[in-house]
Amino acid sequence: MENNCFNMTKLCPDADNTLGTVCIFGTGDFGRSLGLRLLQAGYSVVFGSRNPQNSSLLPKGAQVLSHVEAAQTSKVIFIAVHRENYEFLSAFSQELAGKVLVDISNNLMKNQYPESNAEYLAKLLPQANVVKAFNTVSAWALQSGSLDASRQVFVCGDNSESKQMVMDIARSLGLTALDQGSLLAAKELENYPLQLFPLWRLPIYIATGLTAAIFIYCVLTDIVYTFVNEGKDNSYRIVISIANRVCPIVSLIMLSLCYLPGVIAAILQLYNGTKYKRFPDWLDKWMLCRKQLGLVALAFAFLHVLYSLVIPIRYYVRQRQNIYIISQVKDNKTLIFDSTVSWRSDSFYSLGILGFSLYVLLGITSLPSVSNMVNWREFRFVQSKLGHITLLLCTAHTLVYGWNKFLYVSRYKWYLPPAYVLSLIVPCIVLVLKLILITPCVDRVITRIRQGWERKSVHVPHDTSGQPLIL
Q1: Residue 171 · residue 5 · CB < 8 Å
Q2: Coil, helix or strand at residue 292
Q3: What pLDDT, in 10s, does the model give residues 229-248?
Q4: Whole-structure pTM value
């Protein structure tokens, strides 16, 4: 029976139980870590080195030979050297003919070279089968057993048998191998490790801009206005009071921004009468980062909860309470119980608790370890239906907080509305539009469109002139 995995060359008398022999060119950090992991998995490991005598740092049990000798021991060879040093491989191209060369290199910046490192290696050694793999796995991940790191290994190459060999090695190491197609995908794989939170940039920019704008707005209407008109210095309120006003406003706006693109997408599908027309690029990017928008919003909600918990122990709050109690005693007055205020305060806290609880549930279900355990219908129910309920509860929480404050002219400092009013604009727009979209007559049309139905287009008469129509 023919063995299509690796060359089963024995390196020592007790190598009968090994899975095969794997060769590694390069004795750097990654090469040593990969060699140790392969030895632990049951492979025989041969290192190809320019100086075989200098092998004190290599894992125990591995053999060190010259490059030419090492290449003859295995079908699969890991090239653990930088692209700048690939030229030395041309000297023994005959020994590498027919071998599976696994390129694990990365660059210092995205699109550093016209072609990918793997394609460059394939040009240098056209008779070898080059496979791009293991470049997304770090030496630390190999050393730690991938318990606290990414377990995914992206694999691409032009030879299916060579790719299968590399994928079998990855799986035997406890990693998850994912086939990414031909070697043309190597450039994308090499750019992947160089990305720095690509889906988090837009949410962070939005959160930063909103935080700065609302903070300045609150300082202007609360601190500066009081100082200019009354001569009082309330700057101490910046640390907690203003911060506890900014965090819930940013959180509510960003939560509504998670569901606004879905509403816009539904309106566009209704307008176009089909689901087969592409959304604008800005809407595509917006929809891709909805998860990150929600997690950033949840972080601001957590800050709001923490700031609210310290309110009773603040010196400013305790001082005001003491002054109020002393004034009541001096004037011999008794505060009459107001059931309206009681209903309002209890509703305010209850809505906040319910909204934050669902907020946390949305954040938990967005984690990959949790979302992989539920089916699509369950995930959609939590993220869509419970998500809109969360937005409704948080909006109601803000409305009860404001109550009738917007009716008093004194609340409009320098003719500017209270900050909480600004936080209600986007959520109310999203909720009203969503309410319209879920009405039976509209929802029925959207459901049909998403199932493939298309509105009949206007008939265009056949042009017999032979000239193409320019639409």
Answers
A1: no
A2: helix
A3: 988 998 999 999 999 999 99
A4: 0.74
